[in-house]
Structure formats: C-alpha cells, structure tokens
Amino acid sequence: MAIRFHIARAALAIAALVAFSGFTVQSQNSLPPEFRWPMPSRENRPWTRWWWLGSAVDKTNLTRLLTAYRDAGIGGVEICPIYGAKGYEGRFIEFLSPKWMEMFTHTAAECKRLGLGLDVTTGTGWPFGGPNVTPEIASGKVVLKRYDVAGGEQFKTELPQGQLQCLMAYSDKAEQLNLSDKVANNHLEWTAPAGKWRLYTVLRSSPAQKVKRAAPGGEGNVLDPYSIKALDQYLARFDKAFADYQGEKPRSWFHDSFEYYGAQWTPDFLREFESRRGYDLRTQLPALFGEGPEDTVARVKSDYRETISDLHLAYIERWTEWCHAHGSISRNQAHGSPANLVDIYAAADIPETELFGSVEEKHIPMNKFSSSAAHIAGRKFASSESFTWLTEHFQGSLSQVKQAADYLFLSGVNHIFFHGIPYSPADAPWPGWQFYAAVNFGPQGGLWRDLPEFNAYITRCESFLQSGAPDNDILVYYPIYDVWNDPSELIRPNPVPKSLTNVVMMLWENGYSFDYVSDRLLAKAECRSHRIVLGGNEYEAVVVPDCRLMPETTLKKLIELTRDGARVVFEKHLPADVPGMGNLELRHAGFRQLQEKIGEGDGDAHLKHWKAGEGDMFVSTNVQALLELIGANREPFTRHGLRFVRRKSGEGFLYFIANRSESAVDQYVPFGTVVESAIVFDPRFEKRMGMAEIFHHPVGRLTPRSLLSDADLRTACADIHLQLQSGESCIVRTFTNKVVKGPIWPYFTNAGPAQQVGGTWKVDFIEGEPKISGSVEVTELRSWTDFDQSELKSFAGTGRYTITFERPEVKADDWMLDLGKVCESARVKLNGHQLGAVWCAPYREKVGEWLKPGKNILEVEVTNLAANRIADFDRRKVKWKYFYDINVASKRYRSLDASDWPLVDSGLLGPVTLTPLKKTAIK
C-alpha cells in the first residue's frame, strides 16, 4: 500500500502543545478524553494460574486469598488442581467430588463478588486425562515390527504387546496380502506363498502416559488427543459433575501445552487416513517404515503427519464446542503439538503461547504463532503463560519480569497469565505451599510488596493493547509441508523451519509487522482495494518464504488473490511441487496448469514480476529489498533498537514501544503511519502522559519518488521525539487527522553533572524475617548482607533508608533522582511526599516538584528477594519442601538445594544522585 503519511500542520501542532503546561496530572477525570487511560477491565489486569495443591482448599482461605489478589491488582484466576502437600492429606478433596464442587461454587461466587474472572483447567495437572480414561481411549504409541519370511515357510510368532491395527505381507513381486485376520490373541501362524516376503505389523500400545502432576481424584491415563469419541467420553465426567451446578460459569476452560508424550496413533487412524488423504495407508506400509525411495517415504510420512494434525485439530474444535455448550469459551496452548500450529491455536477462543525462560528475540518466530492465530481468526485476546522458569526460585526480580512482559507484548500477547500462584493456607509456615516451578507471584513468593505496581503497569499496557484492532503489514505463509515432508522419524513437535525464521527475523528487525497464515486460513482471505482481508484485518502483501512444496489449492488461492489486486511475494522461487502421496498424478497435473498460468514472468534470476489482473506477483532473492521497492509499510524507528506492536484505533494508531537496545534513545524517530498529533503515555505511572513533539517532513522519505502517486507526494511523514532509557517502554497514541489539546510531554536534558547524595544513611528494617531490631547507620551504601549484623545475611523483607541532604545550588527546571543499583524494588518519599514505587531499572524519578532549597529528607524503602532466606533454610535443614510428586525442583529439573547459593545483594547500593534538568525547546 502507499505509505500512510499525512500533510503536516506544524503551526497547529505547536499551538496545541503550548496551550497546556505541566506534566503531573492530578486526576484522570480532569484530562481531555484522549489523554485518559482506558477504564480498566478485569481482562486488562494480569491473571494467574492458581494451583490448588491437593485441592486442599477451604472457604475461609479462598475468600482471604481472592481478596488479596484483587487488592493487588490481579484480574482473574485459573484453577489448576495438582498434587498436594505432605502432612495435609486430611484436607485433600477429590477432584469433581461434591465437596470439590462446593469449593468451586464458593470460588465462583467470590470471584463474581470481587470482580475477578475465573478460568479452570479441563482436568488436573496436564494434559487431559484421569480415572475415567480407559486403555481404549487413552493416548497410544505406534509399534512398528517387521518380519522376513521365505516362500513356503510356516511362520509362527508372538506379536509385540498392543492392539493390532494391521498386518500386511509384501512380496518381492510386489504382491500385497492383508494378514490381519490371521492373528489371534496376538499370535500369528501363516504359511508363506512362493517368493520372498516381508511382513509389516502396526500395533497401538496404550496407555502411553499417566497424567502429570495430577491432583487427588485426577490420577489416571492420558487421553487420546486424536479422537473425538475419546474426548466425548472424557468430558462426560465433567457433564455429570456440573449437571446440577447453578453458579457462575467459568469464563473459559483451559487446555495446556501439548504434552501427550508418545501419542502417535488412534484406533480409527487407518479409516481417517484414507478418508482424508485419498488412499489406503496399508498399501504404503514400507514407506511408513522408512523403506523405499526417499521421496516416497517423505510423502507418505507427510500424509501421516497431516492426518495427525487434522485429527488433533478436530479434537480441539470439539472441545471448544463443548466449552461453548456449557456457557464458556476455550483457551488453548498449541505449542508442542505435531500439528499445524496456526490452525490449532486458531481453533480456540483464546490462543495462548508460553514464555519459558529466555526472552531473547530469537524466540520471536515461535512466540508469534499464537498472536497470529488470534489476529487472523478474529479473536480479541492472545494470552500467555508467563514467566515460567524466568529465573531460579526466589531469584527473579520485578525488573526482570518487566522485561519479559515487554517481550510478550511485542510478540502480540495482550492477556498475561502469571505462572503462577500456589494456594497456601494461612496456617502454613513461611514460605507456605509452593509449586515446583518458578516464578511464585503469590504473597509468599518474595515479590508481593511491590507487585501491585507491576500489576498496574500490565493493566495500563493491556488496556491499550486490548483496544482497537491489530494492524500488521504482512501475512507470512507457514510452509508446513516442507516440515512434514521429512523421511526421518515418524512424529515430533513441528520445528519452525529455517526459511520461515530467516524471513520473519528480517521483517522483525526492519520494522515490518506480520502475522503467520496457514493454508486452511488463507483459503478464507479476500482482497479488497489491493489489501488482503482476513479475520477482520487488512494486510499489504503475502510473503511466502523459501518453500518447495505447496498444495495446488493454496497456489490457486494466491493466484486468485493476485488477480483481485493483492501483492504476493515468493522468496527465491515459486513452489516446485505438491506435498503428499494421494492422487499424486492428478494433483501434479493441476499444479502444472497453475504454473503455466503464472508463466515465466519479467525480470532476471534475482527478481521476477508477474502482473495478474489488478495485482502483482514477485519472486525475489532479496525479500527485504523488494518490500522496500514496492513501498510496503514499515516502522523505520526499529533501526534505533526500538521494538513495537501497533494497533489501529478509530482516530489513528496505538503503539507499544520498548527500547530493547543497550543505549538510551533521545531523538526524533520516524513513524510509518499518518501522524497529525500524538500523545506519549508512560505505563509505569498513572499520571504520566503528554503531547509529543512532532517534526513533519514535506515529502515521504521511505519510498522512491518514482513509486509514489501524486497523492503520496503531497503527504508528509512525521518523526516523534522519544526519550527512552535502555529497558524503558511507552505507549504512543497517534491521531491521523486531529490535533489534540492537553498537557505536553516535558522533554528534559541534563543541565549539569549528577550530584551524589552523600552523608549518613539511617537504615531500619521495617518488615520481614528474621526480625532485625535497632537502626544501622552507614556513610557508604553497600549490600546489607555486608552489614555487621549476621542476621541480615538471611533477611528477606524491607529496609528503610533515610538521609537528610542539602539541595545542590544549581539552577534547574527539574531534578532527576537516580537511586543507582537497587536490590530489588523501592518506594520513595521526599520531604513527606510519597513519590511511589521505582520497581524496575532504571530506578529514577523526577523530583523537582518536591525538592526544596536547603535541607531535604529522603526515605527509600527497599525490598529484597527471598533467595538469601531460602538458602539459609536449606543450610539449616529447615523443612519447607514437603510436597508430593516432583516436590520443588531447580530450573534444571533436579531436586532444589539452595544451600550452596551465594549471597544475593540486597538493599540500596546506589550511588544515589541528583541531576539538574532543563526543558528542551519545542521545535
């Protein structure tokens, strides 16, 4: 599409900027509506997985904890019953028993009263399974066994354990015999005809797995994830338990990540395969076993994998139908499945990804699947199981969590779930009941005191990220058939192919926003006014990564879209062939006809172009250069280390922008959308927002002039002044045809060097364990683990630092208080004024409004992590790990032993400085 710039009216913009002054707004209601945060809903707030250990819950503690969660800014809970705590067996409640339903009913009522949302897992632990899952409907492995038999031999053998699916004999003369009816009680007796014979036996071994981390009453076999009949039988247990339930319905039911380990077969597989792929798999068993020409083996295994994908998709679709029939919606994690991830995610009402440990951008290709599915399927929410194993137990800080949350937002997530909070009764000694994996966001996890500030940050971000609609530029085809067309092992989680990774990382780094699209969902796309419409969203082009195999129906659809006005870009070459084995000659012929329709095209080996109807088709060895050539929209500011997610609103666009570089950004950065005026919001603070400085250009700069229309040449692109330290983020709300009026965003530069706040600090330990009496005075800030009191080496809690200091005699428009190194979160008070919490790096705040000439009193309350106390517990052999199953594990999935942990720095380490600031002039 043409670049979306707008003619500037700089004089109007400046007039609006100077019409208001000031920065800290006293009330949201006093602001013009454009400057207000959206009214927070329960979905805007972070939710949490809530582990019911042993389902050993009671009404008093349920109400107490739910109230605490609400007061801390949590928006909802997802009940997940798991294994229990040793010594509390008398409190265990059987899953779905009348007592369990009583506790669930109370929870639902309290959530409604408190304004909290309620989700629930469709079982205990994970994945689906339990006591009503018989071997017949349990997940099953496939057992493949070969026998060589000479002609005339009377062959007798005991087959491997399992349910026989088929037994075929193939001769050296290409004869095929079905010997399945020769098997009785797993015993085969057969006299081979003349020739050399090889027997291929397929059996299903079931059950393959027990439910992981099951709660009392939830133990049992894991369900077959490829059978609707098995699913219906499994869900009947829930139908019975909830038959007389009159309470508030769960908002959604949850299906965890695909951890049906070893699930490779289902009893109806052969019938389903023939129905879906068009041939009898029993005629191609050598290829399934990995024998024969590599191309044939790969094609047959591709068909097997596609059938597995189809069956799991039907399973998730049926489960979603069941959720709807019970007045709820579905929430699903598709990752880990051997299926088309785009389709599986899109089959749920809320697709959910998972952040497991690392937040490196190399994981973006994987994390984009769920939000892509949400967008192209028209879903409002893309959720995330968040912060799983971000760090070791009790070692994760809110500053680290903030960076991980920003990463999730950038990947398209707009509905964060903590992973998580374990239910812990009031009488359980600290640290209470624990889940085996980090991070614990509950009252006894070490982050609770300042967690409300982080929750408010999430709420403000998600209030915008759930507004409007997604606005991504490019649809990227998911070349799943190149993944499936593999002659190696039979089944595995689908990797992200290298060709896809290369393309999407190029798009990511160069400011092109994108969503994935599958063959099934691409079939629903339309082209209107040269834009591809899918899921209610519009895209400028389809990019097909280096891809050898493509169904003829998909290639035909791409040609149709092109004729209707779309732009389609193939990397390196057009697809060369169709996937799979069924009806191959007929499909080959159809594919060749499509290739002939496309023709040779104009250009050379590096770039070819086809004009088809109203649209254009390209093949390019350099997709980035081609996108620049055709003027595809992008956000150029990514070259400054900024990353973004963009949504469209009725009056313009909403941006979440994070500085993921190591350097500060303080400059005008170019935006790729039409901007007449803009408001910057700092989501860390409720009252921090203001009109942005904008510099408009008379001519669009991102596209060669030869490609711009007359209208484009009359438009202007705009640069917005952003000031973001490394790790900081902001919301930018832009307006396309409107100059808004309100408070301006104050831009400051340093008016002089930083001045250290020196003198004697008085330190009092006001909360935490062990109890520390008396004050400590220090003139040099250091970790309190280095103070003389030995108890501080194991202290977990809050210390208050107080100092009286003189304001520097320097002229300044404002002052920046920088706390330096904080371990790990702080609340600041200056001259009796609560300045709020600084809970993430950089630990800075403007304080000029409260700084006075002469003496000033600064108080900083610093809360550390609980790691030192936990390490002390393990050194002293304190019994705090007393849970069934895996108990408490380390990040490496070994039994957690913190006794060798080094001391973690704690407190205010500084240096604490004041820097004079001066306002910059409006340009």
Average pLDDT value? Answer: 94
Largest sheet: 8 strands, parallel, barrel
Oligomeric state: single chain
Poorly predicted tracts of residues: 1-26, 700-711
**Helix residue percentage:** 10-25%
Proportion of residues in extended strands: 25-35%
Radius of gyration: 31 Å
Count of individual helical segments: 19
Topology, number of strands: 49
Name the overall outline: globular
Going by helix content, strand content and strand pairing, the class is: alpha+beta
N-to-C span: 31 Å
Strand order of the largest sheet: 1-2-3-13-14-15-16-17
Topology:
Layout: H1 10-19, E1 47-53, H2 59-71, E2 76-82, H3 98-114, E3 117-121, E4 129-130, E5 141-150, E6 154-158, E7 163-171, E8 176-178, E9 183-184, E10 187-191, E11 196-205, E12 221-222, H4 228-241, E13 252-255, H5 269-277, H6 285-288, H7 294-325, E14 329-332, H8 341-346, E15 350-356, H9 364-376, E16 383-388, H10 398-410, E17 415-422, H11 451-465, E18 469-470, E19 474-477, H12 480-484, H13 498-509, E20 514-517, H14 519-522, E21 526-528, E22 531-534, E23 537-539, E24 541-544, H15 552-563, E25 567-571, H16 584-598, E26 602-603, E27 607-612, E28 615-620, H17 623-629, E29 642-648, E30 652-659, E31 665-670, E32 677-681, E33 689-691, E34 694-696, H18 710-713, E35 718-724, E36 729-735, E37 748-750, E38 755-756, E39 761-769, E40 775-778, E41 796-806, E42 814-818, E43 821-823, E44 825-830, E45 833-838, E46 844-846, E47 855-863, H19 867-875, E48 907-910, E49 913-919
Parallel strand pairs: 1-2, 1-17, 2-3, 3-13, 13-14, 14-15, 15-16, 16-17, 19-20, 19-24, 24-25, 25-28
Antiparallel strand pairs: 4-12, 5-11, 6-10, 7-8, 7-11, 9-10, 18-29, 21-22, 22-23, 26-27, 27-28, 29-30, 30-36, 31-35, 32-33, 32-36, 34-35, 37-49, 38-49, 39-40, 39-41, 41-47, 42-46, 42-49, 43-48, 44-45, 44-47
Helix pairs in contact: 2-3, 4-7, 5-7, 10-11, 15-16
